[in-house]
Amino acid sequence: MIAVILAVVGGYIFKPSHSAPAVSGLQVVASGYVPYTIAKQMVGEHAQVSMLLPPNAEPHAFEPTPGDMVAVHKADVFVYVSDDLEPWAKDVLGGAGANTRVVQLASTLPKSNDLHVWMDFDNVRTMARTLVGALAQADPSQAQVYQDNLAHFEEEISSLDNEFAHALANCQSREVVHVGHLAFSALAKRYNLKLSALAGASHDGEHSARKLADLVKYIRARNVKVVFTEEAVSPRLAQTVAVETGASLLPLYTIEHVSKDDFKKAVSYKELMRRNLENLKQGLVCQAS
């Protein structure tokens, strides 16, 4: 039985009751939702995909458990995004087996200070190619299947990229005022949007009283009608901004983690990004071009 570990973040093996039944061939274990959802599309019905990180869990900082070490030790492939995004990965890699393949997805991407590399469609295409290369090496008998699934995924991403470009070309506002961490910088840059965020680069970014007061003042002064938030942000914080400013709230999805409901439904990368597009169109008041 071949096993593959894909990691963005992890901590303990999450085996939900709705996991797919055991199958012969490739077993893929993803510790975060970004590699999980991509892997699901790459392997199709030819492998089992499960995830380490529970839905709604904090993805940026984690302490691997002994169970994680055992899983990596038994794996044929361990894939993660980057040492910067997952500083805990070095501890996991210490327990890798002699035959474990280690693949760092971001190693094939241009250097960037932005950890959320999957928010750029060029990057996510490259990440999928890197993943398929590892899958094909681990399971050569299904290499053509993985390549075909990759081709379909790349077509979807190209189409989605065009949708974003056309939908966001003509908007009343180009400023995304966001109560959350800076996960959307690459997305904003790609489509010529300006991102103003309350927090720093991670979910535990300091939401100081001064920062909050400055944001409220900024929203009032600019007469911002819609403020974007995200699933990991405290509802109280978002509601405080809404009450103080009168602005409406719309969610954006980081994809690095998802709700339990979205996990059960196996909501794809494409679907989550399309949600982002629909909310950006609404919040920025965009007209079809």
Largest sheet: 5 strands, parallel
What percent of the residues sit in helical stretches (DSSP H or I)?
Answer: 40-55%
What is the level-2 CATH architecture name of the largest domain?
A: 3-Layer(aba) Sandwich
Q: Give the CATH level 1 class of the largest domain.
A: Alpha Beta
Q: How much strand?
A: 5-15%
| H-E order | EEHEHEHEHHEHEHEHEHH
Our Rg estimate from Cα atoms comes to: 20 Å
Oligomer: single chain
Q: So, the CATH homologous superfamily of the largest domain?
A: Nitrogenase molybdenum iron protein domain
CA-CA gap between termini: 51 Å
Shape: globular
User: Under CATH, the topology of the largest domain is which?
Assistant: Rossmann fold
Specify the number of helices.
Answer: 10
Extended strand count: 9
Decide which structural class fits the backbone: alpha/beta
What is the count of structural domains?
A: 2
Model description:
The protein has helices spanning 33-43, 66-74, 89-93, 121-138, 143-167, 185-190, 209-222, 235-245, 260-264, 269-284, and strands at 2-7, 26-30, 47-51, 77-80, 101-104, 175-178, 194-197, 226-230, 248-252. Helix 8 links the parallel strand 8 and strand 9 (248-252). The protein has two domains: 2-164, 3-Layer(aba) Sandwich (Rossmann fold); 171-284, Nitrogenase molybdenum iron protein domain (Rossmann fold, 3-Layer(aba) Sandwich), CATH 3.40.50. The chain has 289 residues and is an alpha/beta fold. Helix 5 (143-167) packs parallel to helix 10.
Features of the shown structure:
289 residues; Rossmann fold; 5-stranded parallel sheet; two-stranded parallel sheet; 9 strands; globular
